[in-house]
Design a protein that fits this description.
492 residues, alpha/beta, Immunoglobulin-like, eight-stranded parallel β-sheet, 8 helices, 24 strands
Length: 492
């Protein structure tokens, strides 16, 4: 097998990646991150379908597991105790909180690492990048009760702590175990070119005034220490991998201020979860509430565009504004947000709730809708010259009523204009046919114009137009969204 350097920031475009010599954008609808941890999850089927749908990324948690909830009771990240493939062996003596023998943190579980290598190896064969998530927020007492590093679950005499303090350096024995775990994962996975590491999923702290709970700065200092463990471990190993993450979210309202993450924070990729309280460059962007079915397309576009001047890629790493609904309306919202995000030079992932143990390729409805739609998106975006393409503002002078435009292109050569109905689903007229024209400022020359459907993945027959200050393109009738692609003619 040909040897490649690990996925890296593209040398010609700092907002996208280079993977095996080609530009790459992250675009995916993943399962709920437990493909390795859940013994009953058939990841071969899952990865094969991902490859078929041209999805480029999967996130995989290394330790964290969840409890069942009414909204998504059977996700891959919620295995019953007997199917949880932990990194540690469980010889006891004594019983952990899930009813099985206690963990021994001094004894790694060969079964976990065998499954880890099979998963990443198969993903590598299929050209899929794996985001290796080392740690996660533990959210509440019930979820923390499942963690092998929680004192009641292991025989190794770590400190007993409040769950909020898990992502801090307050407790030396626990911190040593976290360090050992992060180093072990890095050492095991260093040989792969199709991975990068995320420090911690949704790391969060508290505003000043509560000494028992950690501050944002304290959590960020812990994150820096984990990043240093990764760097130190890899300093002695052949490969060097990217690190993803962001500064801590603020409890209790999940406010985010990722500005510093682009500069002084020790990550190469800035991961954010688009939520209402995103604060960037003195402005707040309301990008929709969790599981709300809100579109908030303008806020998504404007936030993504605002970060384009920053020196690191931005990945909307978990957009769950409508995933729980598992219907055409919810998936349409995710589709429109995904196209907008990618056309603004960023990357996109949301949790696809139809993917479950025993249903690793989703439902027949999700195959027909969102999984097929994401295939079209990936094929389209990777047909562009991503090394040279950039989001373009000021190109479009006017658009049909109720639509919002996002433009990605190589100026003077190839212009991709994504038009989406920006109304919320409950607004009058949303989902009704739209037609009209777009007016653009194009450099002088001859161009061909074709219309692309995000739903069918098909192009219309090309038509010719001329450039100029007032270039007009008639847009055929569409519902929800369409793409106008304008390419300079060879003779032009």
């Amino acid at each position: 097998m040909q040897q490649y350097t690990p996925i890296r920031i593209h040398p010609k475009n700092p907002k996208c990646f280079e993977f095996r010599g080609k530009p790459l954008v992250f675009v995916t609808a993943t399962e709920h991150y437990g493909a390795i941890l859940n013994r009953k999850f058939d990841f071969e089927r899952y990865l094969a379908d991902m490859a078929d749908k041209r999805m480029t990324l999967t996130r995989e948690f290394m330790l964290y597991r969840e409890i069942e909830t009414p909204k998504n009771p059977m996700s891959a990240l919620k295995p019953p105790p007997e199917d949880y493939v932990a990194p540690y062996q469980r010889p006891g003596p004594g019983t952990a909180t899930d009813g099985l023998p206690m963990f021994d943190l001094d004894r790694w579980n060969p079964g976990f690492f065998e499954r880890l290598h099979r998963f990443i190896g198969r993903a590598s064969e299929l050209g899929i990048v794996v985001e290796v998530v080392l740690f996660s927020n533990t959210y509440n007492d019930r979820i923390w009760a499942l963690n092998p590093l929680n004192k009641p679950n292991n025989i190794n005499n770590v400190e007993e702590i409040k769950w909020q303090q898990y992502t801090t350096s307050r407790h030396s024995k626990l911190l040593d175990r976290q360090t050992d775990f992060a180093r072990k994962i890095v050492e095991e996975t260093n040989k792969y070119d199709n991975i990068f590491y995320e420090i911690c999923n949704e790391a969060a702290g508290y505003a000043p005034g509560d000494e028992q709970n950690p501050s944002l700065d304290e959590v960020d200092q812990w994150q820096r220490s984990v990043a240093e463990v990764i760097r130190q471990a890899e300093s002695k190993l052949p490969n060097k991998h990217l690190i993803a993450g962001q500064e801590a979210l603020a409890y209790p309202d999940w406010r985010q201020s990722p500005g510093g993450s682009f500069r002084s924070f020790p990550v190469d990729i800035v991961n954010v979860h688009p939520l209402p309280g995103m604060r960037y460059a003195e402005k707040t962007y309301d990008m929709g509430a969790f599981e709300s079915k809100q579109l908030k397309l303008r806020a998504v576009r404007d936030f993504c565009l605002a970060t384009q001047r920053e020196p690191k890629p931005l990945n909307l790493d978990e957009d769950n504004v409508a995933n729980v609904f598992k219907d055409a309306e919810g998936w349409t919202i995710q589709r429109k947000r995904a196209w907008t995000t990618l056309f603004c030079g960023c990357h996109y992932d949301f949790i696809e709730f139809s993917i479950l143990p025993g249903s690793e390729t989703g439902s027949s409805e999700s195959q027909r809708c969102v999984r097929k739609w994401f295939k079209h998106l990936s094929e389209f975006i990777h047909s562009a010259d991503l090394a040279n393409a950039r989001p373009l503002t000021g190109l479009v002078k006017s658009v049909p009523p109720h639509t919002l435009e996002s433009v990605l292109g190589v100026d003077g050569k190839d212009y991709c204009v994504y038009l989406a109905d920006s109304r919320e689903m409950e607004e009058k007229g949303c989902g009704k046919p739209i037609t009209g024209e777009i007016v653009l400022h194009l450099p002088e020359g001859s161009y061909s114009v074709s219309i692309y459907s995000p739903v069918t993945g098909e192009y219309s027959q090309a038509a010719a137009i001329s450039g100029g200050d007032y270039a007009v393109v008639s847009v055929p009738e569409f519902v929800h969204d369409t793409v106008v692609r304008i390419k300079r003619s060879k003779a032009g």
